[in-house]
Batch of 2 targets.
Target 1
Amino acid sequence: MNKPRETARLLVRNGYLITMDDDETIFEHGAIAIGDDGRILAVGDDADIAARYQAGQTIDAHGAPIHPGFVECHLHASYHLFRGVLPDQLVESDSFDTFEGHFYNTVTDEDEYLSVLLACLEMIRNGTTCFMEAGTVLTPEMAARAASEVGIRAVIGDAFIWDQPQGFAQGKTDGAGCATCAAQARLHTELKRAPKTREEALATLGAQLKRNADPDALVTGHVAVLGLGTASEELMMEAKDCADAASVTLNIHQSYSPADTEADRKRFGRDPLLHLDAIGFLDRNVTFAHANHLTDAECEVLLERGASLAWAPAASMMWGHGSSMHGRHGELWRRGGNVALGSDSPNWSNDFDLWRQSNLAVLAARDTHMDRTYLVAEDGIAMATRAGARAVGLEKQIGSLEAGKRADIVIHTLDRPEMVPSTNMIRNLFYASRSKSVHTVIVNGRVILEEGRFVGIDERAIYAEVRKASRSLLNRMGHRVEANAVPRAARRP
Ligand SMILES: [Zn+2]
């Protein structure tokens, strides 16, 4: 007599299962059983799982790839209402007063909510099931609300943890005679709703950690510090203590452009990461966003301490900061460093598509080292999954498809031209299709996107609201959207 089958809430069957477990096991005809609590009960060969479990709902992947949801490790979620507004010929030092000064003093809670809502829909559609926000949503509650409504996992921080906002401008240019420095310093200190002093920053630091009291919470808290010269050493260490006490990640922008890297080198009197190590800041629970400009000595100490990087290759390429030429990310990855990925913001990468970042990361590293074999597709997928989970402090819960982990799962479709023919599933997925074939997305065992359609979310109604809110925000900011910002004559002087 057959053994009675165990009960699962959901079965995902008949897929090319890329588990990203420690051995990077692949089940070519695989299945996943998911329990009532949103955790994975078992993964394995389809025939074995089907024989062992019965479920109320079954999703047939029709042979398509299935992988752990991608983990976005550096993202500003509240700028989506002015995506694409900054012209290609704008220099970066002029860009910050547009959004820092005017945007942050104009944006409302409702604008931030809609922006994060849009960002979440975009991430789900692109196969991202978890994001860590960089601590720049003025009302973090709006980020939490939007993420919860969409059903995406989110790790959010307090807004603008800084105590020397004028430090930002100093790191944006080479200094002497800079016409915009003074203006920028003023704008940053005039962000009405951001802290001005260490006391004000400390008053909000750690407020989002309250979310971690519920072990099943989809939206949790971490400690975000803006960085780039805006935090004193005292504040940085207070933030580190706060993150340590709560066992969460501390994330901070670091060594983004040559200018802010130099400014940090000047204020610390040596390579920034060497100084941060000397004062006890550099640690396994620290995630540095960007880190495009590191010295040999900084790479060594980074590897030794086990800190993570959130590499945003498109953001560097968009603004010409040289991560593909000077970045050490690929090399650090090969040496065992934890290099995760980020999309930054809607005027830096412009899309929240970690598949794009993953692909760019692998190709950029090959180009830098002039070596096709330097990184392979599997490295890119590992950066977006396992490394990401560690960089946001959730490696025990997500980042791979294994029994006991949360069921954050992306199922692709083979019914796209880029997925035909199926000669090598991973290479077809990574080089040809990427996010285009994302078909069904599950977060914490719940189906959010089913065969290309959001479940219980009126996507078009949200887009209409976002368009309206964006027009209103840009009007209030006095921003004129130009039909053609860069005429041909200006492009070819
Ligand atoms: Zn950033």
Note: The chain is about 40% helix and 20% strand.
Target 2
Amino acid sequence: MKKGDSEKISAYRAAVSQMIGHPKVREMDSYIQHGKTTCLSHCVYVSWTSWRLARLLNLFPDEVARGALLHDLFLYDWHVTKLPGLHAFTHPKRALSNAEQFFELTPREKDIIRHHMWPVTPALPKYASTLIVVFADKYCAVLDTFGMPRRFRSLMESLLEREL
Ligand SMILES: [Fe+2]
Ligand SMILES: [Fe+2]
């Protein structure tokens, strides 16, 4: 672990403390997202990456971390369960509807979940901070598929406070 990581981990965990241990968030570990990566690992990876970028850009990092953590809370295995419509277009709406059932969300957090697939879903995000998650989601999806960096895998144990 790099010097300064433990402070960053504490600050990140404080931002997502109401969500990261929630049973519905943990349920995402039952569903594969990309390659061998579960939805939970993917969402934590996107959330951590987005939070760090948002801190650098001074763009609402804690809301970005929370929206990103919930951005794929659709709660099914899209490789197995075939619902009406193409998953790529329909899952942001379902993730938002689930997230609103379990958590109080800010407009920025809702925008992140609803528009994270932009430009695949063409409606424009309302906030610049959503674009951070739009970018981080695509970046992390590639690394999920081809292998998450080893350093991040051990960091994830600390973010989730459990062995993965
Ligand atoms: Fe997604
Ligand atoms: Fe995603």
Note: The chain has one domain: 5-160.
